[in-house]
Structures are given as structure tokens and as C-alpha cells.
């Protein structure tokens, strides 16, 4: 079993998708070993507690810089012998030492079909507003390996979501989350924990496909 930590900052909807998959024995080869929050008031901590996952807080507000905070996160991960890191609504930037130590071992989702709509200025519901403004017919979500360069790591899985004529940014955001992000995140984690993912430059090969 691969000891996995989920880093969170907010409500924990993506975390819940992992907890639910684990409950139904669909999170193959994965041990949810820790939930680590940058925010002591994050509802994600309650989700973790209710599921019996050990929860920890590394409060970003207590650290003088992003670098010092990143080292605190790294220390906690190493203390817990974490093998895989999942960013699930984690709204803090991490620094190079974390990416170096966990190279090829950090997974996140993004609510578009990368590399589309990954501009540095886009976040939250503004991503789906940009999708609607562009007039595209399909959007979706991407599960990928996180690297030091934001929103550019090797892609593991993608799932498309139709853009409807009556969509608003909020409606589209919810459908992308429910129909795509919450589907591909547990699958990507399972593939990693089963040892089926191999990074070759920009590509991720999935054994058995």
C-alpha cells in the first residue's frame, strides 16, 4: 500500500471523492495516511476526521514566508513517511525543495482540458467564465503530475464535459467538478499506487492500456 497524504485548504470536495472511492474499495493500492491542511478552519479536516484519516494542520499564517512554509510541509510529509502527495483544493504555492524530494510523486487535478485555460491569472470560477467566453463546446478536467512550473506537468488522465447553451460559470464549474475532477482523481491515484504510471518526458504511459 502506498502511503498517501492529501493536502487541502478548503471544503474538501476532491478529498471526499478519494474517501468515497476508498470506502468502496475502488482506491486500489492506496493508504490514505494523512490529511494536511494549510487552514485550521478548513471543512476538509472534518471530512478526514469523519473518515478516520489522521488529520494535521500546518497553518500557513504562522510562517514568515512561502519558503519556510514549504519546508514545514516537507518536514511533515517526511515525518509521516508519505510516498504520494495529492493536492486537493490546496491553495498554497510550494517551493522547489518539495518538488525535488517528491518529483513524479505529486498529483493534482485542474478544471480544464490542459493546456487550455491555464493562464496564470485564471483561478476558481474565472476558469469556467473564460471557457464560456471562448465559446468552446467541450471542456473538462485534467489529472496531472505537479512540477515546479504551475499547470504544466505531465498529464495522466483527462475527461471531457460538454458545454451547454444555458451554462453559467457556476453551473459549469459544478459539472466539471462532479463529472470529471471527482472521477479522474481517484483513478489517477489508483493507477499510481498500482505502479502503472511511467513518466517519459512530457508523456505519462499507463501500463495495461
Gist?
35% of the residues lie in helices and 24% in strands. By secondary structure, the chain is an alpha/beta fold.
Topology, element by element:
Elements: E1 2-8, H1 13-23, E2 30-37, H2 43-50, E3 55-57, H3 66-79, E4 84-87, H4 96-101, E5 106-110, H5 125-134, E6 138-145, E7 155-162, H6 169-193, E8 197-200, E9 203-206
Parallel strand pairs: 1-2, 1-4, 2-3, 4-5
Antiparallel strand pairs: 5-6, 6-7, 8-9
Helix pairs in contact: 1-6, 5-6
Report on this structure:
The chain is built from six helices and nine strands; from the N terminus they run E-H-E-H-E-H-E-H-E-H-E-E-H-E-E. The chain is α/β, with parallel strands linked by helices and 209 residues long. The protein folds into two domains: 102 residues, 3-Layer(aba) Sandwich (Rossmann fold); 101 residues, 3-Layer(aba) Sandwich (Rossmann fold). The strands form two sheets. The protein has a seven-stranded mixed β-sheet with strand order 3-2-1-4-5-6-7, with helices on one face. Strands 8-9 form a two-stranded antiparallel ribbon.
Number of DSSP helical runs: 6
The name of the CATH architecture of the largest domain is 3-Layer(aba) Sandwich
Rg, Cα atoms, Å: 16 Å
Annotation, overall tally of beta strands? 9
How is the biggest beta sheet arranged? 7 strands, mixed
Total tally of structural domains: 2
CATH topology of the largest domain: Rossmann fold
The share of residues in helices is 25-40%
Low-confidence sequence ranges: none
Q: What average pLDDT do the residues reach?
A: 96
User: Could you say which structural class the secondary elements and strand pairing correspond to?
Assistant: alpha/beta
The dominant shape is globular
Order of helices and strands: EHEHEHEHEHEEHEE
CATH class of the largest domain: Alpha Beta
Strand content: 15-25%
CATH homolog superfamily of the largest domain: Formyl transferase, N-terminal domain
How do the strands line up in the largest sheet?
3-2-1-4-5-6-7
Distance between the termini: 22 Å
